[in-house]
Structures are given as structure tokens and as C-alpha cells.
């Protein structure tokens, strides 16, 4: 996490604009005085501490979400937010396919409220693996899951009932989502009975399918321009949205109280 953080902090202090986001010395909201970053050793870990504070406050460790997965997802969230593409709901959804399908590996998080809205099962593609997926593809008719960041689109009614379209944001990894009809929908095979009978959830044709009884809840929570991140370390994955310098700039610029709470500011 240390890479590029030093450059970001110097930019924050000098008030130079980075990628369209301005940073400046600000006034303390209570003391009505200007404050500055104290020293370089503090600033190296500021963004990491910011993420850690959110992670701990939502108790994501207790529901099985790995910190590094959350870190990647949140970094992507801020990168995509910088492009003005997101809704004001501040919802971040993570499907962690480093976990087996019997685990509740879908996490819907309200970042503003610092709340876990829902933690539940989510299916992966039938050609991605058995209980734990290990193969991912962006190819049409591959019946696999695809890695990366998605922007949720419009709600529609299809063969699975009320469903939610997705736009893949990572070229080469998931940008064929629309053409492949990769959507969020309810499925009867996402349930405890499937786990009891098969030793795993049923599998989709590549869609992040959820339990039928929870489909409307999931769709209502994440619809209309929010981020879904599908994670796995089973295959190499890179993304332009994992720029930590940009993410740190946006996160800390809009949460400057955080630094003072950690006594990192005068």
C-alpha cells in the first residue's frame, strides 16, 4: 500500500490537482484553523488505515471477507467514482470467488452508513469450476464467470423473472457482459437444499445468481449505477481501476476528518 502514497500526500499539501481531483490545505471543522500532515511516516499508512477503519467498523472479518479483497474492491470503487459514473447510494457489492460456493460470499456494503446490508450466497458459472471456481473467461457462450468491476444497469423482466443488467468495466476480462447476458437474477439452485444434495450450490451460465427469495432485495439494493466486484486470485487479473494513488486522493479528500481522528493532522 506504500507505493505512490508519498506522492499523493505531497500533492494533497501543495494543493495540486491530480486526475481532475483537487486537493488543498483545509480548515479544521471544529477549531476553524488550517491543518497539515505532520510527517512522512504518518502519511505512508494513512490510506491503509482509512480502509482498515471501514473494514473493522463493518466487522467484515467476522463474515469472512478478506481484507485484501475489500481493499481492491474499495480502490476500484473510488477510481470509478472519479469518472462520475456512480449513483449517490455509495453501495459496493463484492462476490469473493476465492471462497467456496457453500460460503456466503456475496457482500453488499453501504459505505456511507458503514453497514453490511446483506451477506448471502452467490453462484458462479458452470464452466468455472465445482464448489470453488478456478477458471474465468470473457468469451461469449463460455458459461463461465468473469472477473473484475461491473456497473449495475437497468432492471428488466426475463426468463428468470426480475433481473438486473450489468456492464463489465474491465476490457478483456468482463466487457462482453452485455453480449453474454450476464445479469443478476434469482435461481432456485442457490439454496441450502442444493448444498445438501450436491455439496455445493448449483451453477449458472456465468451470471452471479442469488437465491430466488432474495433476488428483489439484492436488485433493489444495488440497481442503478453501483459497483459489483467479482474477485478471484485463481487467474491473473489487472485493472486500470486499481490505481491506489487516485483512490487515496478521492477517499481522503472527502474524508479529511479521518486523518484528524487518527491524530495525523495538526
From TrEMBL:
Superkingdom: Bacteria
InterPro entries: YkuD_2
PANTHER family: HYPOTHETICAL EXPORTED PROTEIN, MUREIN L,D-TRANSPEPTIDASE CATALYTIC DOMAIN FAMILY PROTEIN
The protein's name: Murein L,D-transpeptidase catalytic domain family protein
Annotated source species: Pedobacter mendelii
